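Q: Given only this backbone (100 positions), what sequence would you predict?
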């Protein structure tokens, strides 16, 4: 597995070429606030740590035919579930303290 620095940026065009997708897909994700694109000297870059997330959204769109609005909703729901899971874990840990 390749080691990536926290602030490493990947050229958006390179990512799209590698995955054989249109740059407009990445731009649509940005419009919905699903990804931050940095523009440096008129080239667009994606934070490397977001690539797994973007690839997941890409699969939803291209393999499952889910539109950007749907991806936005799914992403929000998954985030809420993750937050609830963290909350439940914290509550279970507090409960264990009282059970002793």
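A: Predicted residues:
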């Amino acid at each position: 597995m390749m080691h990536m620095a926290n602030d490493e940026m990947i050229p958006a065009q390179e990512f799209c070429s590698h995955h054989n997708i249109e740059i407009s897909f990445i731009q649509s994700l940005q419009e919905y606030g699903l990804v931050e694109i940095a523009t440096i000297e008129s080239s667009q870059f994606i934070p490397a740590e977001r690539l797994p997330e973007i690839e997941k959204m890409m699969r939803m769109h291209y393999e499952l035919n889910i539109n950007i609005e749907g991806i936005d909703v799914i992403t929000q729901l998954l985030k809420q579930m993750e937050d609830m899971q963290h909350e439940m874990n914290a509550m279970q840990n507090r409960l264990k303290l009282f059970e002793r």
